[in-house]
Amino acid sequence: AYHATGRPEEALARYEEALPIMREVGDRAGEATTLNNMAGVYDATGRPEEALARYEEVLPIRREVGDRAGEAATLNNMAGVYYATGRPAEALALYEEALPIMRAVGDRPMEATTLWNMATLLQQQERLPEAVEQVKAAIALFHDGLTHDAAGNTVERYEDYLKRLQEY
Fold first, then answer.
1. Sign of CA pseudo-dihedral 40, 41, 42, 48
2. What's the half-sphere exposure (Cβ side, CA atoms, 13 Å) at 82?
3. ∠ CA(153), CA(80), CA(63), 5° rounding?
4. Residue 89: CB partners within 8 Å, gap ≥ 6?
5. For position 6, what pLDDT does the model report?
6. Is the pLDDT of residue 5 over 80?
């Protein structure tokens, strides 16, 4: 909440206070959430390496507690940091790892967004046929009842992107 109001350092201080308490009471899920929130603040304030370090702590906890949706979200968040810091191969690998988990937990909006992100990376690597396949897979989700992706985009945006890829 502090971060959302533009007070990231205060948010980090509160998370730093909460973390040992979560650990002391054995609240592994709360610990993961706190670390994830810290990573988000670091990412939003231009500290990607610190964000990645926190996400690296979150991932095994999410797996330990069986939070598959949280695991997929963490992989996606890490991929976003890698993408933003010019490490597309790492980003793509994490998106590919997250995708089957999203499918398993039924997070179709995030699945579509991940397919879009993968297509963008593939397009930048001039792997156009693969990029096209990712966008087509996302469009299929819309044709199966999805109304918007996790970012709020509709099928029209995906169809426009597909058209641009095919013209490229």
1. positive
2. 20
3. 105
4. none
5. 76
6. no
> Cα 87–90–91 angle (5° rounding)?
80
42: its two tokens: 């670091």
From the list 100, 17, 85, the residue with the least C-alpha distance to 46 is 85
Span 87-127, pLDDT tens digits:
999 999 999 999 999 999 999 999 999 999 999 999 999 99
Instruction: Render pLDDT for 41-60 as a digit per residue (tens, 0 to 9).
Output: 999 999 999 999 999 999 99
Please measure the distance between the N-terminal and C-terminal CA atoms of the chain and give it in whole angstroms: 43
Given CA atoms 24, 29, 30, 34 in this order, what sign does their dihedral have?
A: positive
115 closest CA partner among 158, 68, 70, 74: 158
Task: Tell me how far CA of residue 97 lies from CA of 9, 104, 122, in angstroms.
Answer: 32, 12, 15
Residue 66 tokens read as 């069986």
* Two tokens, residue 60: 């095994």
